[in-house]
Design brief:
The chain has 274 residues and is mainly α. Helix content is 76%, strand content 0%.
Length: 274
C-alpha cells in the first residue's frame, strides 16, 4: 500500500514538474534573450538593457502604451464584473419565463467566431463615434467576455445556500441589500476568476485593436509590439520584441501568482452546491 502511494506521488511530481518546466522554458529564454547581445539589436556588446531602452523610446513611448493597455483592461474588468454579477444573480436566483432559453442564447455567443463580429462593429462604431476609441475597444472586449463571465457567476450564485439570502430578507434586507451585503462576499472567488480572465484577455488581445484602432498613440501594448517588430523595411528587431514580451508578461504573472488561490476556488465554486 505504501509502495503504491509512493509511486503515485512520485508520478504526480514528475508529471507536474515536467509540465512546469515546459511552460517556464519559453519565459526564461525570452527573459535572457531580451538582455543578451546580438548584432541586429540595440544590445550588441555584453548583457544589458539596450533593448528595453529601444522599447521605452519607441514611437509614442512605452509608458503611453502601458497606460492604454491598463485603461482598456481595467475598464473591461469593471464592465464585465458589473454586468455578470447582475446577470448571474438574476439567472441563478430568480425564475422568470424564458430564463433558460435566454441564458442559452447568451452562451451561444461563444460559438460565433470572434473576428466575424469585428467588421460590423467597426462600421457601427464609425457611425456613433467610437472608432479609434479605447472606450469602444473595452466595450468590444466586454461583449466577448460576457457569456463566460455570466456562466461563471451564475454557478457561483447557485452554489450559495438559499438560506443565507432568505435570512437576510427576513431581517429586512431588500434584494439588492442581500446581494451587496451577503451574496457578493460569498461569491468573491468567482468574481476573482471572472475579473482575472477578463483582464488577461483584454491585456493580451491583438485582433480587436488591429481592427478598431488606427492612431498609433492609442495602440495597446500588443499592437505596439507588432508594429515594433517591422519598423525598418521589414527587418525584425528581435531584441526589442523579446523585451516587449517580458514587459507584457510581468503584470499577468504577478496577478496570477497573487490571486491563484482565489482563482482555483472560483473554478471549484460550482462543483458542490450548498
Amino acid at each position: 500500500m505504501r509502495l503504491q502511494r509512493a509511486v503515485g506521488q512520485t508520478s504526480y511530481y514528475v508529471v507536474a514538474g515536467g509540465l512546469a518546466i515546459m511552460f517556464l522554458i519559453p519565459l526564461i529564454w525570452t527573459s535572457v534573450a531580451s538582455v543578451s547581445p546580438h548584432g541586429a539589436t540595440a544590445q550588441q556588446v555584453g548583457y544589458g538593457l539596450g533593448n528595453y531602452r529601444t522599447l521605452l523610446d519607441y514611437d509614442a513611448g512605452l509608458p503611453r502604451y502601458l497606460w492604454n493597455s491598463s485603461y482598456v483592461s481595467v475598464l473591461t474588468v469593471i464592465f464585465v464584473l458589473g454586468l455578470s454579477i447582475l446577470g448571474g444573480y438574476a439567472f441563478g436566483r430568480f425564475t422568470f419565463p424564458g430564463r433558460d432559453a435566454l441564458f442559452l442564447l447568451i452562451i451561444a455567443i461563444l460559438m460565433v467566431p470572434y473576428v466575424t463580429l469585428l467588421v460590423p462593429l467597426w462600421v457601427l462604431f464609425g457611425e456613433i463615434g467610437l472608432r479609434n476609441s479605447l472606450f469602444g475597444l473595452a466595450l468590444v472586449l466586454t461583449l466577448y467576455q460576457l457569456p463566460f463571465a455570466m456562466f461563471m457567476m451564475r454557478i457561483s450564485f447557485e452554489a450559495i445556500p438559499k438560506e443565507l439570502e432568505e435570512s437576510a430578507l427576513v431581517d429586512g434586507c431588500g434584494t439588492f441589500g442581500a446581494l451587496r451585503r451577503i451574496m457578493l462576499r460569498s461569491v468573491w472567488p468567482g468574481m476573482i476568476t471572472v475579473g482575472l480572465f477578463a483582464f488577461l484577455h483584454a491585456w493580451n488581445d491583438f485582433i480587436a485593436p488591429l481592427f478598431l484602432i488606427n492612431d498609433s498613440s492609442a495602440y495597446p501594448l500588443p499592437l505596439a509590439m507588432a508594429t515594433l517588430r517591422q519598423q525598418t523595411m521589414g527587418a525584425v528587431d528581435f531584441g526589442a520584441t523579446q523585451a516587449g514580451v517580458v514587459v507584457m508578461a510581468v503584470p499577468c504573472l504577478i496577478l496570477f501568482l497573487v490571486l491563484q488561490r482565489h482563482y482555483v476556488r472560483g473554478f471549484m465554486s460550482g462543483a458542490l452546491k450548498g
